[in-house]
Amino acid sequence: MSMLTGLAAMRERQSEIDEAVAGFGTFVPKLFLKDGESAKVRFITDFETAVVSGDFHSMPQVSKTGRRWWKMFACTKDSGACEHCDAGNSPGFRFGMWLWVHYVLHTQQKDDGWEAVVVGQTTLFKEEVDGPMLFSQGWRVSCTLTAYFDKRGTLSDRDYDVSRKGKSQNTTYTFDPDDPSVFNEDIPELPPIWGAMLDEVMMDGTSQAAFKTTVAAKKEEVAAAPVKAAAGIQDVNALLAQLSSLDTFFDEEEED
Ligand SMILES: [Zn+2]
After folding, report:
1. Residues 121-151: tens digit of each pLDDT
2. Which of 57, 104, 210, 211 supports an S-S bond with 84, CB 3.0-4.6 Å?
3. Distance from the alpha carbon of residue 95 to the mean position of ligand 1, in angstroms
4. How far is the CA of 67 from the centre of ligand 1 (A)?
């Protein structure tokens, strides 16, 4: 294998590997708001008949790159043993549903890609989404939405501004309703909410575990192939060959 020098070359190699697996599948997008963030949404899961809920364990995870996140596991105590209950973790109620997210207003910019908008005294950064995202929350938010549903008989007849204030135990979500409006977006076929909550399915409904295995195998395959730098060296050789033929040409001219 050819030797690469410098971080830039290594990054290029990493992106080459990532490109090889791009388009293999799409993870289920989830709406996570941070303190001070909001989103313009439409509830697209029928709240009366199709919302999904149960008892879950949220377990902290750390990815290979150091990113921290929470993974949900269904509590299995009602059908016998539950390893997470046995380990001392308390399960909590969660529900899940699909939202159509028009846009998200973030508190922090990402890669200069989001439009800066001033809301009140605050500058926020607008991410245009225009697509479905999973929304999963606990008991308090379910009570708030149930109250809206009881008042109107539906959650889906208008858009809402969902905003989050506060952190961890002091978090409050508010749902600010717009006037009723017609919803015209084409909703694609969506994977099962339960599987999406548990990170078991991809957006097309296929298994997330199978996807990860396929991607890992493809990355190994690309990583084992000769690096692009080797092709670069061949180009240099070709250039040297051209230069030497030019030398011959000039030599011939001089002889004239
Ligand atoms: Zn449990």
Report:
1. 999 999 999 999 999 999 999 999 999 999 9
2. 57
3. 16
4. 25
